[in-house]
Amino acid sequence: MSLPIAMGWRHLLFANWPVDPDIVAAQLPDGLDVETYDGRAWLSVVPYLNVDVRPRGLPAAAGVALPELNLRTYVSRDGEPGVYFFSLDAEGALGVVAARLFHRLPYYYADIELAGTDRGIAFTSERRHPGASPATFAGTYEPVGDSFVPEPGSLAAFLTEHYRYYTTARDGTLRYADIDHEPWTLRPATVSIETNTLFAANGFDRPAGSPVCYYSRGVDITSSRNRRWE
C-alpha cells in the first residue's frame, strides 16, 4: 500500500526532444495513448534535486534529499493526460526500494552528483542497480533569459504542466497518482551533454537534433497514493 507523499523539486532541467509518435507508442503499456504537440511525441530527460521527501503531513525537516534523473513522455488514458516514466534513477538505495515497492515506479539506484559551477549546474549519474541496463548521464545546464509562466496551450505548458503520472505494476496492471503543485516558473536553458545513454537503456535510438530546454528553480509537490486504474 502506498502513502500520499510531499516533496520539493529543485534546480530542474527539462531537456525535450520531438520524436515519431509510433516510436513512443511501441514502448507504452496497453491502455495508454501517446499525447502529441503539433503531431509530434516528446521524450524528456529531467535531472533535478528532490528535497524534503516524506509522507504527507510530516514536517519538511523529517524528509530526505535525493538527486534524481528521469526519462519520460506524455500520455493519456480515457482523455486524462499525464506523464509516463520509462525510468527514474536516484541516489539512496532505501528510497529506491521503497519507491519500487510502494509506488510501483521504475526506480533504479544510481551514483548521482549535482553541483553548482561557474558554467551552471553540473549533473552526473551512473546507474548501479543490480541486473538493470546500464545508464549514464553527464551534462551541465544553466538558465538564460527571463523567467515566465507557460501559457496554456503552449509547448512549454505541454512539456511541464502535468498533474498525474501513470505506471505499471509488476503484474501488468495500470496504476496512477495525482500530483498537485503551483504552476511552473521557467526560464529558457542551455545544456551541454557529455554522455547520455538513457535512451538506449530504454530501447530508443537517440533523437536527432538539439533539445528544447527549460530550467526551473522548482516547486513543492504533493502526491496522492498510487492507485490501480479501475
Short synopsis of the structure:
With 230 residues, this protein is mostly beta strands.
What does the average pLDDT come to?
91
CATH architecture call? Beta Barrel
Enter the CATH topology name.
Acetoacetate decarboxylase-like
For this structure, what is the CATH class?
Mainly Beta
Low confidence ranges: none
The main pleated sheet reads as: 13 strands, mixed
Radius of gyration: 16 Å
> What overall geometry do the principal axes of the alpha carbons give?
globular
- Distance separating the two termini: 16 Å
CATH homologous superfamily annotation: Acetoacetate decarboxylase-like
Helical/strand content category? mainly beta
| String of helices and strands | EHEEEEHEEEHEEEHEE
Account of the 3D structure:
With 230 residues, the chain is mostly beta strands. It has one domain (5-225): Acetoacetate decarboxylase-like (Beta Barrel), CATH 2.40.400. The chain is 11% helix and 52% strand. The protein has helices at residues 21-25, 93-103, 155-160, 198-201, and strands at 5-19, 33-34, 41-55, 64-77, 80-90, 107-117, 120-127, 136-143, 164-168, 174-180, 187-196, 212-223, 227-228. Strands 1, 2, 3, 4, 5, 6, 7, 8, 9, 10, 11, 12 and 13 form a 13-stranded mixed beta sheet that branches. The longest helix has 11 residues, at 93-103. Pfam families: DUF2071. InterPro entries: ADC_dom_sf, DUF2071. This is DUF2071 domain-containing protein.
